[in-house]
Amino acid sequence: MVESLLVTLGSYQIGLFFTHLQTFNDVVVYDEYSNSIGNAHNRSMMIAPSNITIVSFKSGGYNAYTGFSATVLPY
């Protein structure tokens, strides 16, 4: 499992814009207290409630899936 901690400076929230999603398992986004914000979907957008968020992904180990990409911006 891969977990990435995303942090922005100041009082901004974090905007996650998923542009490509082809995974066997869900990509899950958590707030700074490890509460689930939601599961990513292709062409979806999530706004974290603070300036800290965690993105968690577990590879299924299948070559047919190409993974995911997202743009992360202060919001």
Distinctive features:
75 residues, mainly beta, 4-stranded antiparallel beta sheet, 3-stranded antiparallel beta sheet, 55% strand
Present the secondary structure layout.
Blueprint: E1 2-7, E2 14-22, E3 27-31, E4 36-39, E5 45-47, E6 52-57, E7 67-74
Antiparallel strand pairs: 1-6, 2-5, 2-7, 3-4, 3-6
Report on this model:
- The structure is a single chain.
- With 75 residues, this protein is an all-beta fold.
- The chain has one domain (2-61).
- The chain is 0% helix and 55% strand.
- It has strands at 2-7, 14-22, 27-31, 36-39, 45-47, 52-57, 67-74.
- The strands form two sheets. The protein has a four-stranded antiparallel β-sheet, with no helix packed on it. Strands 5-2-7 form a three-stranded antiparallel β-sheet, with no helix packed on it.
- A hairpin with a 4-residue loop joins strand 3 and strand 4 (36-39).
- The chain is globular, with a radius of gyration of 12 Å.
- The model has no long low-confidence stretch (mean pLDDT 91).
Contiguous helical run count: 0
What is the averaged pLDDT score?
A: 91
Strand order, sheet with most strands:
1-6-3-4
- Helix share bin: under 10%
Low-confidence stretches: none
Please provide the ordered H/E string of secondary-structure elements: EEEEEEE
Classification by helices and strands: mainly beta
- Could you tell me the number of beta strands? 7
Shape: globular
Main sheet overview: 4 strands, antiparallel
Q: Which band does the percent of strand residues land in?
A: over 45%
Taking Cα atoms only, what radius of gyration do you get, to the nearest Å?
A: 12 Å
The total number of structural domains is 1
Termini gap:
27 Å
